[in-house]
Amino acid sequence: MKRDSRLSGVLHILLHMARQSEPLTSEALARAMATNPAVVRRTMAGLRDARLVHSEKGHGGGWTIARDPARITLHDIYLALGKPDVLAMSNRNDAPGCLVEQAVNEALGSAFAEAEALLLRRFSEVTLAQLSASFDRRFAERGADFALETIHAE
To answer: Comparing C-alpha atoms, which of 119, 127, 110 is closest to residue 87?
Structure first.
Protein backbone atom coordinates (compact mmCIF):
# COMPACT_ATOMS: atom_id res chain seq x y z
CA MET A 1 0.00 0.00 0.00
CA LYS A 2 1.34 3.39 -0.99
CA ARG A 3 1.91 5.77 1.89
CA ASP A 4 0.11 9.11 1.87
CA SER A 5 2.58 11.86 2.78
CA ARG A 6 0.27 14.83 2.15
CA LEU A 7 -0.10 15.68 5.86
CA SER A 8 3.66 15.78 6.32
CA GLY A 9 4.09 17.83 3.15
CA VAL A 10 1.37 20.32 4.08
CA LEU A 11 2.83 20.77 7.56
CA HIS A 12 6.18 21.48 5.93
CA ILE A 13 4.59 24.10 3.68
CA LEU A 14 2.63 25.69 6.53
CA LEU A 15 5.75 25.99 8.70
CA HIS A 16 7.53 27.75 5.85
CA MET A 17 4.54 30.05 5.47
CA ALA A 18 4.55 30.80 9.21
CA ARG A 19 8.14 32.08 8.87
CA GLN A 20 7.28 34.63 6.18
CA SER A 21 5.53 37.97 6.55
CA GLU A 22 4.63 38.12 2.84
CA PRO A 23 2.46 35.71 0.83
CA LEU A 24 4.33 32.81 -0.74
CA THR A 25 3.63 31.76 -4.31
CA SER A 26 2.91 28.18 -5.28
CA GLU A 27 6.16 28.29 -7.25
CA ALA A 28 8.23 29.29 -4.20
CA LEU A 29 6.57 26.63 -2.04
CA ALA A 30 7.07 24.05 -4.78
CA ARG A 31 10.80 24.85 -4.94
CA ALA A 32 11.06 24.41 -1.17
CA MET A 33 9.25 21.07 -1.42
CA ALA A 34 10.99 19.88 -4.62
CA THR A 35 7.64 19.39 -6.32
CA ASN A 36 5.43 20.94 -8.97
CA PRO A 37 3.46 24.17 -8.29
CA ALA A 38 0.28 22.41 -9.48
CA VAL A 39 0.74 19.84 -6.69
CA VAL A 40 1.02 22.67 -4.17
CA ARG A 41 -2.11 24.39 -5.51
CA ARG A 42 -4.10 21.15 -5.54
CA THR A 43 -3.05 20.29 -2.00
CA MET A 44 -3.63 23.79 -0.65
CA ALA A 45 -7.13 24.00 -2.18
CA GLY A 46 -8.58 21.82 0.60
CA LEU A 47 -6.91 23.98 3.23
CA ARG A 48 -8.33 27.10 1.59
CA ASP A 49 -11.81 25.54 1.55
CA ALA A 50 -11.41 24.80 5.28
CA ARG A 51 -10.32 28.43 5.82
CA LEU A 52 -6.91 27.45 7.15
CA VAL A 53 -5.08 29.34 4.39
CA HIS A 54 -5.92 32.19 2.06
CA SER A 55 -4.77 32.73 -1.51
CA GLU A 56 -4.50 35.96 -3.43
CA LYS A 57 -4.02 36.07 -7.20
CA GLY A 58 -1.90 38.51 -9.14
CA HIS A 59 1.27 40.48 -8.49
CA GLY A 60 2.18 40.30 -4.80
CA GLY A 61 -0.28 37.44 -4.30
CA GLY A 62 0.29 33.98 -2.96
CA TRP A 63 -0.60 31.83 0.01
CA THR A 64 -0.91 33.00 3.63
CA ILE A 65 -2.06 31.32 6.80
CA ALA A 66 -5.62 32.50 7.50
CA ARG A 67 -5.80 31.80 11.25
CA ASP A 68 -3.62 32.02 14.31
CA PRO A 69 -1.32 28.96 14.16
CA ALA A 70 -2.14 28.30 17.82
CA ARG A 71 -5.71 27.61 16.67
CA ILE A 72 -4.84 25.23 13.84
CA THR A 73 -4.44 21.61 14.90
CA LEU A 74 -3.07 18.66 13.00
CA HIS A 75 -6.63 17.33 13.11
CA ASP A 76 -7.92 20.45 11.32
CA ILE A 77 -5.35 19.91 8.58
CA TYR A 78 -6.08 16.17 8.40
CA LEU A 79 -9.80 16.95 7.88
CA ALA A 80 -8.97 19.57 5.23
CA LEU A 81 -6.97 16.94 3.34
CA GLY A 82 -10.07 14.76 3.13
CA LYS A 83 -9.28 12.42 6.03
CA PRO A 84 -6.63 10.26 4.36
CA ASP A 85 -6.11 6.76 5.73
CA VAL A 86 -3.88 6.96 8.79
CA LEU A 87 -3.01 3.27 8.91
CA ALA A 88 -1.36 1.38 6.09
CA MET A 89 -2.55 -1.99 7.41
CA SER A 90 -6.03 -3.38 6.84
CA ASN A 91 -7.92 -6.64 6.72
CA ARG A 92 -7.26 -8.94 3.79
CA ASN A 93 -10.95 -9.27 3.01
CA ASP A 94 -13.65 -7.00 4.44
CA ALA A 95 -16.49 -9.55 4.10
CA PRO A 96 -14.96 -12.99 4.46
CA GLY A 97 -17.00 -16.18 4.36
CA CYS A 98 -14.31 -18.05 6.31
CA LEU A 99 -14.93 -18.16 10.09
CA VAL A 100 -11.20 -18.03 10.81
CA GLU A 101 -10.82 -14.84 8.79
CA GLN A 102 -13.90 -13.39 10.49
CA ALA A 103 -12.22 -13.93 13.87
CA VAL A 104 -9.00 -12.34 12.59
CA ASN A 105 -10.94 -9.37 11.18
CA GLU A 106 -12.75 -8.83 14.47
CA ALA A 107 -9.51 -8.75 16.46
CA LEU A 108 -7.61 -6.61 13.98
CA GLY A 109 -10.57 -4.34 13.26
CA SER A 110 -10.95 -3.35 16.88
CA ALA A 111 -7.18 -2.82 17.28
CA PHE A 112 -7.08 -0.69 14.12
CA ALA A 113 -10.03 1.41 15.32
CA GLU A 114 -8.39 2.00 18.72
CA ALA A 115 -5.07 2.95 17.12
CA GLU A 116 -6.73 5.36 14.70
CA ALA A 117 -8.81 6.97 17.47
CA LEU A 118 -5.67 7.46 19.58
CA LEU A 119 -3.77 9.02 16.69
CA LEU A 120 -6.61 11.36 15.74
CA ARG A 121 -7.02 12.39 19.39
CA ARG A 122 -3.31 13.24 19.45
CA PHE A 123 -3.72 15.22 16.20
CA SER A 124 -6.29 17.36 18.04
CA GLU A 125 -3.74 18.19 20.74
CA VAL A 126 -0.90 19.39 18.48
CA THR A 127 -1.04 22.86 16.95
CA LEU A 128 0.83 24.47 14.12
CA ALA A 129 2.22 26.94 16.67
CA GLN A 130 3.73 24.06 18.67
CA LEU A 131 5.41 22.69 15.55
CA SER A 132 6.68 26.16 14.73
CA ALA A 133 8.14 26.50 18.26
CA SER A 134 9.87 23.15 17.83
CA PHE A 135 11.35 24.36 14.55
CA ASP A 136 12.43 27.65 16.17
CA ARG A 137 14.26 25.75 18.90
CA ARG A 138 16.06 23.47 16.43
CA PHE A 139 16.89 26.39 14.17
CA ALA A 140 18.32 28.46 17.05
CA GLU A 141 20.52 25.51 18.02
CA ARG A 142 21.89 25.39 14.48
CA GLY A 143 22.53 29.16 14.43
CA ALA A 144 21.89 29.66 10.74
CA ASP A 145 19.95 32.25 8.75
CA PHE A 146 16.52 31.34 7.44
CA ALA A 147 15.93 31.65 3.71
CA LEU A 148 13.13 29.70 2.08
CA GLU A 149 15.15 28.95 -1.02
CA THR A 150 18.24 27.66 0.81
CA ILE A 151 17.09 26.26 4.18
CA HIS A 152 17.03 22.68 2.87
CA ALA A 153 20.58 22.86 1.55
CA GLU A 154 22.11 23.01 5.02
So the answer is: 119
